Protein 1
Amino acid sequence: MKRFAGLVISLAMVTVVAAVYAQRAAAPAPAGSVTSKAVVAANTFLNGLSTTERSHAAFPFNSPQKSNWSNLPSGIYQRNSLRLGDLTPAKRDATLALVASVLSREGYQKVQNIMNGDEVLKGSGGGRTGGRAGGGGRGGGIAFGLDEYYIAVFGTPSTTTPWMIQFGGHHLGINVTIVGGNNVMTPSLPAAQPAKYALNGQTIRPLGNENDKGFALINALDAAQRRMAILNYQVNDLVLGPTEDGKVIQPEGILASALNSNQQNMLLDVAHEWVGILNDDAAAAKMAEIRQNLPRTYFAWSGSTSNGGLAYFRIQGPTVLIEYAPQQGDLDHIHTIYRDPTNDYGARLVAP
Amino acid sequence: MNVRIAGILICAAVLGALLPQPAAAHRLDEYLQATRISVERNRMDLAIDLTPGVDVAQKVMALIDSNRDGKISDSEGTEYAKSVLSSMSLKLDNRRRLLTLTGSRFPSFLDMSHGEGVIRLQATAAIPATSSGPHELEFVNTHQLDMGVYLINAMVPADKQVRITDQHRDTLQHEFKMDYRVVEAPRGWAVSWLLLGGLGLATMLWRKEALRKARQASPVVFGLLLASMGAALSSSTFEAARAQSTPTAIDDREFWRMVTEMSETGGTFPRQYMSNEDSAQFVIPDLKRVTRPGGVYMGVGLEQNFTYIAAVQPRLAFIVDIRRDNMMEHLLYKALFELSTDRADFLSRLLSRKRPAGLNSNSSARALLDAFQPLAADAALYDDNLRMAIDRLTNVHKLPLTEIDKADMTRILNVFRTTDPNTLRGQGDNTNPTYLQLMTATDLEGRSQSFLASEQNFKVVQDLEQKNLIIPLVGDFAGNKAIVNVGIYLKEHRASVNVFYVSNVERYLFDQGDDAKKFYMNVGALPLDGSSTFIRSVTSDISVRLGIPIPDSTAKWRSFLVPINDSLKAFAAGQLQSYRDLFAAPAPTR
């Protein structure tokens, strides 16, 4: 009986030690400077709101509102969060400062470019495959443009416990989950219409790098590699768009391990256009993860291989899915999606 | 125009006039139909998202709203959903399967009029539990072809026993074909739990009183104990489960996919048509002692791999060589193995010489080759053999060989025709062993162990070739694809490499920058076990030049067995800085 009791005690001790270790392993990383700055920015933003505004901006961390985002404009899609157009200039600045606090400089510029493009679209009648009317706003008709972006904060801004920032509107959905020092920006949807416009004397292409780097990569492949990469069918839209959280399609195309190191770097560079929207520290961690999974990452292409032609492409690995899809044959109207099927909304970080 | 159609048009027009004008919408004159297919062993589930564009929304609304009241009733929704399913066809293994509607959700007409209202349908097809092996699914969507734009995707199966091996679509994606395999369940787990039950019962009968007391004292700890016992038993039988998970045969498409997608573009190395390692069989007795049949073999080079494969009897083999020519010769060998009835027939095809009389399954390798040696090559036989070999690969296996591939095979077979077993040698000088000498060589104990030494040895290789289980790859040992992909494949199939014949390739890797490091990193990423073994070879002249101690012998080469983990540890410890170091630490077994 003594030996048996000893065995039982030993097993219990092992179990306890294992449980403690597992808990420690799952603990969030220490808060970095980005998280600290984001907490300050979030509190500044939230504290500046009226009670009514706050009721539109603050949600519990696990609120179903978290998945209530879309590429669609107001009027078609009801976001229920806080609309930029309803805010004073100071509150609007605080909103954008909060968004900027978790993004890289280039990423925030991309967001600005997408938003400004939407304003251009509003003023130009909607484009060939886009909207044809502006105006409206909350409770009104269909509307897009700079006023029609929405912000929501899920959970309590913290350097230790999970919370999330959601910002988006027409052609933009940014979801940044923050758990300690870890920041995750999946799922997110950067899109563009027009894909090219002039503003203040400058030509802006919000997703120009994504387009150009994608074409550069497909053209860097040799004939045999292209045969593997290029799908023999048309892809007319995103396969895993805004509502398709956590889904994993059977990958196709060429495995990154079939690429030489230069081509692999080009592939990583393409992916970085999405990953690098997030702040540099978090983007570097994500890129390291994608690089580690390169042997199981696919690159698929459909359509023209001449830059300026119509083409869809997809990067799919164990922890990343990126799609780039022109809409209905319109080069001036691009949708993209960036996902991590294992970590959308930071699922991996907040798992019990 | 009849009254009913006129009514529909009027209603649609009125409805359109009442709705806001299209704004900020995306779909215009297309009806996007996205289907995602999930496959399990006994069912297929379809999720169908239908998004009518702005300009076709009214047409779709008219299809749904049969009573023209501007609303979608449950019955109208169901009827429309059924009509959608009726324009779809799902076949499994060439047999049509009935699609049953399991769910539907309709947007408002207002949302649809903006071009972004999505109709979401779910359907399922019950199928008999699919047996292990390959299966083919065909799906066609012909719903509203005049305005339809289609996406069809397979989801990664949640069922780990279902593995998708290939997908095909027509250009517009309304036709979809998918090949998948159902792999055998890992029976080791079942054995585990049976053992657990048995052990638990036996323990209870044996120490009933003690257990009763323990249970009363602490039911939680008692539960933990039982769970721990289960885990321990499961772990002990996990290796058995792994052995069930590698394929027992690979279908042709998957074989070609592996050959092409796991391969690299290839590099240069002197061309040769046969091995020149006369010491290959020296290590076979030890190799048989340290490895168990049923593992995974990896190797480099040509027919010497068949000899090792016959010895270790793996369930799967990968031959990785930087020369594309090497892969082509293996594919040619594959065809010859498959076409041949026995060793004599095989040699007849390989050497383009008519089969001599008097050879049978008991003939020794020496008797076989001696019988062929004096015969002249037969041009007609060569033509027939070549045609049959290429036909075997391209028409039976349906491997899409290029004209260049066929020309390579023609050149290779012609080499065997225009030389003979006693003059064909591996690359190097004319002191290298001939084909006849290698096939009739022995181990250090005097036993002939080549793949042509016995009918049994030959059949081991032939059986694997017939099942597409010898995979020739083009790959650089220091590359970032072929060996990496083998590792990924084996991990996915829960198998480990038990033999890796590396010949003298490491000599070149140590001479090429950090290629040796890359190679050991590649090997380190392979699934290995405690018995995983390298077969290394060194030429006697290199051994003299580099001061590598090898036993005295008349052989030009010497082969060694080394535990792979020992090499990896030595490399990690910085003990392997040169090719010579391989033969110092750890000490080879032969």
Note: The two ends of chain A are 38 Å apart (CA to CA).
Protein 2
Amino acid sequence: MKEVAYNEESKLFGVIRFSLIAVIVLFTMFPIYWMVATSFKPVQEWTPPKPIYFPKDPTLYNYKTVFLGPGRAKGGWWGSDQGVRDSLESTGAKIRISGESSFFIPFVNSMIVCVTSTFLSISIGLLAAYAISRYRFGGNFFPFFILSARMFPPIAVVIPLVVMFSTLRLLDTHFGLIIVYTGFTIPFSVWMIKSFLDDIPHELEEAAIIDGMTKFQAIIKVTIPLAKGGIAATSLFIFILNWSEFLIAFLLTSTRVITLPILISRYFSTTQGHLYGPQAALGTIATIPVIIFGFMIQKHLARGLTFGAVKK
Amino acid sequence: MFGLFRKIPFPIALIIPIEIVMMFLLIFPLIVEIWVSLTNWTPLLGVNWWHADFLGFENYYKIAIKDHRFINAVIRTSIIATICVTVELGLGLLYATLLLKDFPGKRIVVSILLLPMMIIPLVAGYNFFMLFIENGPINQILGFILGKKVELHWLSDPNLGLVAVMIADIWEWTPLMFLILMAGLASVPQNQVRAAVSLGASNFQIFRYLTIPLIKHIILIAVVIRGMELFKIFDVVFILTKGGPGTSTETISFYLYSAGFTYMRMGYIAAGSFIVLAIFLTASYYILKPVMKEII
């Protein structure tokens, strides 16, 4: 970090500055803290008359419920903690991996869909980004055409897709979701990878071509190794986008291919949001991978979200 | 076969895959959407969409002129977008200015401030659902500040519901503004700042007359990107208020979803979404072009 050259500030101003920083950190952390805290609260502490800031009697039942599926914990949710314990222990000795309510199937679905579509989006986007970066393909029009795909509200594109997919029998399949996710993240991958490719001198590829490689080999053997870090950051970024996506999955899937956000919304809507503990636990689990990936690409986040406009 | 492939110029060969995907996911759906929007098709008819009755522009007329729910949703979304972008820009500038100077632990503070935008939007909406319930912490904290008992029904009051949605969005996306503006502030050349200081400018003057003009285009990018995303707002509304009470917090996306998928009037809703698409395309063409030109 380089030295900043502004005027010296007075002591009072420094105090104000740090108290403001403390306030914004609190404002940022509080909702996240509340979710994590709620995920450890037993049933009596979910919505007491006075909110409880620190779980008095922390438990892991909420996580257990998420792993088993609430169907395995029949009864007792509205009664005492004892009821929850009994129902969990009487039925949940062995973990059942089936049905929409369990956490595992949606997790696996999310993984399949996100990993595959991220891979496709990056491969297709890399080629197009190369064409734009090195050949200025399509002048200004082509990059903007790609970007405009991102400007559509997803709902407006999903409605005809539902119509098309119902005819093609692609509704509620992994494949259908994968191509839609690929298409929706391609603008990000093209623009972000393009901004990384722009930083790599094209003379290296030209040298490789003179040495006898084909143009395609030069991409594979010279450009990709040089842009490795950027491509990895773009992949993680697109994985995060796919992992968090809700609306498209919600409209294109119904029973078979449920992703994690859909499961969260199901937990929520079947109980009008009253299953506080397990929901918080599910939210925490679903968020952990995204936060880890997010921190790994922290310095590239601005670049990704502004389509490579802000480089830092 | 392969010989034919060789004849294609290399740049064009590179973009064939993306063209196929865009064709399948953008161009073809657009055609389907235009056709369906001109018919009375719903899945309940039991016929395929190309067999539906042709209505002409009736759907367009009904939704854009007669349907107050749709018009209200458009107006409401514009209001949400304007307020949220303004607040997020102000807060983002504040964050970025506060964290301009180095201090021990700055990296950790920056990482903490970036957390909300990594949270799944649906989960963020759910977090705020927990905070906004009647005997939840927000009412209690407000009561503590005001010194009396506060029992606001955040999620079942038409106006407060809108405020709740906006607070959740501001919480989640101010970090993005902050991140972009921080990158902008870091790009301000320090020798110019030094020159201004030695000429006797105050920090405020430097900020107003040097920093802001220098990062103007970055502010513009941030505002455009956030504005575009805000017009699509769905997840938070879906969790927090479900568009209610009544229709008082319906946004464009939520209206299209609820009208389209609860009553399954596909033709009608396709007309609505085509209007939205047309507005978005025109707007993004005019807004984005000057912005992106500065960057390429």
Note: Chain A has 14 helices and no strands.
